[in-house]
Specification:
This protein has one domain. The protein has 9 helices and 7 strands, in the order βββαβααααβααααββ. A hairpin with a 2-residue loop joins strand 1 and strand 2. Helix 6 crosses helix 9, helix 7 packs parallel to helix 9 and helix 8 runs antiparallel to helix 9. About 40% of the residues are buried. This is DUF429 domain-containing protein. It comes from Fodinibius salicampi. InterPro entries: DUF429.
């Protein structure tokens, strides 16, 4: 099975495979190219909200994830827009819709990732077969697992935090060091940030692990949204 990790970046998406036979990295800059990757690969871990609530501001999976990550990393978990606000043309209209239904506005951070949410949601609505192989995950949860269940003390935006994460990846994959260096050399910082690279790699690593090990979720018995998409954070 071909596995892939995908994370959003300034230029679109960074996709990485750490499979022995299919290892590689790709900057994905169009929806058409992204769709080709989603169709081609058999198991994909992606850092983007998938199932969306209709009336509740906070998804249960996000609440539990914040609890697991602890206070230092709660800000890395964004509550996505509720489904009625997803296709609002402006931030003001999305926030107004959210406020009228939930009593809370959409955060700027959540609005900034809304284009990515809409893109993945559209593919999952149009091609139901993709639902069997695309799994929402979260890099900081996976790094916590990779670090023996302990949160990394330094944030990935710091040099020390980035080195720690890359060091953990290098212990598990022979491709990690070369890919990190090559991606930095091939693409500009206004296309792909360093933290996007390590995030995509840890997603790729755990997508690979999920072939041999059982996938677990937050929450343990996740609900589905009105379109039958699971509202869950997946990990191994």
């Amino acid at each position: 099975m071909k596995t892939l990790g995908i994370d959003g970046c300034r230029a679109g998406w960074i996709a990485i495979s750490l499979d022995e036979e299919h290892a590689g990295y790709w900057l994905v800059e169009s929806d058409k190219q992204l769709e080709e990757f989603l169709v081609e690969y058999d198991r994909i871990f992606i850092d983007v909200p998938i199932g969306l609530t209709r009336e509740s501001y906070e998804r249960e999976c996000d609440r539990q994830l914040r609890e697991v990550l602890g206070p230092d990393y709660q800000s890395s978990v964004f509550s996505p827009p509720i489904r009625p606000a997803l296709h609002a043309p402006t931030y003001a209209e999305a926030s107004m819709t959210s406020y009228e239904i939930t009593g809370k506005k959409v955060t700027i951070q959540a609005w900034n990732i809304t284009p990515n949410i809409k893109t993945i949601d559209r593919f999952l609505q149009e091609k139901e077969e993709l639902r069997e192989k695309i799994f929402e995950s979260h890099p900081e949860l996976l790094f916590q697992k990779l670090n023996g269940g302990n949160s990394i003390l330094q944030k990935k935006a710091t040099k020390k935090g980035l080195r720690h994460r890359l060091g953990l990846l290098k212990e598990k994959s022979k491709f990690a060091d070369d890919f990190f260096r090559d991606i930095k050399e091939e693409y500009r910082r206004n296309q792909v940030d360093e933290d996007d690279i390590v995030d995509a790699m840890v997603l790729a690593l755990y997508a690979g692990y999920s072939i041999e090990e059982d996938i677990k979720t937050l929450p343990e018995d996740p609900p589905t949204d009105e379109t039958d998409l699971p509202m869950a954070i997946h990990y191994v």
